[in-house]
Amino acid sequence: MASGNPYTLKWGIMATGGIAETFCKDLLCSPAVRGADDVRHEIVAVASSSSSKRAAEFLQKINGAFDAKTYGSYPELVVDPNVDIIYVATPHSHHFQNTMLALEAGKHVLCEKAFTVTAAQARKLVETAKAKKLFLMEAVWTRYFPLSIKVRELITSGEIGTVFRTIGDLSINSNAEEGSGLSFADSHRMVNPDLAGGATLDLGVYPLTWVFQTLYHLQPEQDKEAPTVIASSNKYTTGADENTAIICSFPGHSSIGIASTTMRADTDPENVVPAVRIQGSKGEIQVFAPAYRPTKYRVVKKNGEAQTFDVPQPADPARNSWGHGMFWEADECARCLRDGKLESATLPWKESIVIMETMEEALRQGGITYPELITTDVYDPKSPLNTGNQ
Amino acid sequence: MASGNPYTLKWGIMATGGIAETFCKDLLCSPAVRGADDVRHEIVAVASSSSSKRAAEFLQKINGAFDAKTYGSYPELVVDPNVDIIYVATPHSHHFQNTMLALEAGKHVLCEKAFTVTAAQARKLVETAKAKKLFLMEAVWTRYFPLSIKVRELITSGEIGTVFRTIGDLSINSNAEEGSGLSFADSHRMVNPDLAGGATLDLGVYPLTWVFQTLYHLQPEQDKEAPTVIASSNKYTTGADENTAIICSFPGHSSIGIASTTMRADTDPENVVPAVRIQGSKGEIQVFAPAYRPTKYRVVKKNGEAQTFDVPQPADPARNSWGHGMFWEADECARCLRDGKLESATLPWKESIVIMETMEEALRQGGITYPELITTDVYDPKSPLNTGNQ
């Protein structure tokens, strides 16, 4: 840990939905509870796209940062001179335009996953951040968990030998009680193509991040191999994918990743079958559900010897024992900025782009398409995705 | 159960390897132990391709049928007038030629899986059996287990609602202790392309049969839908596939099957994670490893309520408590022949062909090829696969 005063990162929060609430509650937890004495976080501004009243209500919900500025539009937020970094917590349909808005205003950005709707959008974001020398990171929070770091270390140390296969799933049974539909209204972001709805972009990104952090991320840089991607999807009545399976093949490394996601069944109704399995010549590592927020893993050696490890999220007693786990990625942002880094080594730009290429290819093979408004990679500050005038 | 004397089926056993031994030991179990009083089995002849001495030694190994004729060639076996049905227990490279040899001699056939090496071979076998009015069945023994029958009944009865996904795996960690190879000699049938080696044909056929019996077999006949198949394979140094993943998509039924197999890792070194999962709108059925011989399944309802059912194989106390489970398919053969049926309703010819088409397509996409001698669909009684002169 660094000596002296902790580095303080000042956050501007773009959007006031559920994920923003969870993230901000994590920002309000004491870093000391998770053993971080080198960084701290301040929420200095919050914006709703529709009204500053919503932003003010948001501060009540998160029960903190009561001095934060509250805005009723995103363009106002991104020009607030007190903000260091924007947390883009809008639906993924909006990520490209919203992140561009922030970058163009000279702000660093932590952007929720799925990073974008298309790979071209992801490339454009990265080019822009690079050109403007701004920090940019996709908010794949799970990667920054001590559990994930430990799993990657175990693989690197050879604990399970050569890894040949990773299988991951994130599925949530969302069937309606009656009829053959899902429980979501057609306008809901989970199934609405206008909001880039569908299983792959919303849920599939998690099993994919396990495939990537185990089969791609740990490859030596000099023979980094993007996967060959094959995929199949079943379409919901709205046109979004409801059930998708993706095979990522890394022939140069003799490994195969299988990522699956469906809104038609649960990963496991009992939550006892591992959600992720990393299988090697000397055994396997099992990561338990949910794939996005695991708190338990098990190392099973080839001979059947096994041990389970619990890695609970640290909870802050001063914050009603809150602690969801998004603070790890926030700390990463702070450390990168403190150290003058524009990207995180744990999820480099190149890797976010390869993952977007993978999802784009999977969706293409599944016959899933999204409207021009959310797939364009031409930045438009006046896009309704930025102005909220829809 | 039928009244009167049981129907007796007289078997001729082609090949004397491990699978033939297991099958014959099952034939020697008393049908009464498994509650079958309507059929019985006699082993009346056994053939090795190389010497009658081997066939005689085989009778010692199975410890029974000591009066059976012993032959040193397959052509001799298939013309034995006392034989009703030939059990083809050769490597799958040989199945097409060996089964043709038997059919051409007017014998009914139970042929081990994988049925053939190519779909065209499977079609040719079926055409031949049909033309000659002979019984022919692929020996997918697992399908005839009371456990499998129960699982299919549970699905049909709506116990887990609409089935949207089946995931199955059969993998065996066969890495060599030293180096990067597998533990098999390159000439071993598991990896030798001359013997149609590779994970898909040898192991993958089991997860596929779970995909098919749950997502295809139970479809109403009038809208039977063969899957769209995508697959990826890693090749072993011999050219056989060592690691394969297959997605079978049934878009007309909104379902996806994922079948995987590798020789580089175990399905689960502990044998506690289910090998097969059939996932529906109201819950899932988990079938425990190994996928080829499960003795336990678990029904997990959507709300997490779960129950495990043990279905051990009945063991014959008079046969040293033997009972592997291949007798169920033998009984099916006997009943079909007794009732004048040429194919089994549990695995109709059409379905064996669709499964072979699936594996052929998977292997094609994986870039796996086999030599002409074992892929030809031209019958040759003098083929070294029939004469043993290799």
From TrEMBL, chains A, B:
Ranges of residues in domain GFO/IDH/MocA-like oxidoreductase: 150-285
Keyword flag Oxidoreductase: yes
One protein family per Pfam: GFO_IDH_MocA
Gene Ontology terms, MF aspect: D-xylose 1-dehydrogenase (NADP+) activity; nucleotide binding
SUPFAM superfamilies named among the record's database cross-references: Glyceraldehyde-3-phosphate dehydrogenase-like, C-terminal domain, NAD(P)-binding Rossmann-fold domains
Catalytic activity: D-xylose + NADP(+) = D-xylono-1,5-lactone + NADPH + H(+)
Protein's name according to its UniProt entry: D-xylose 1-dehydrogenase (NADP(+), D-xylono-1,5-lactone-forming)
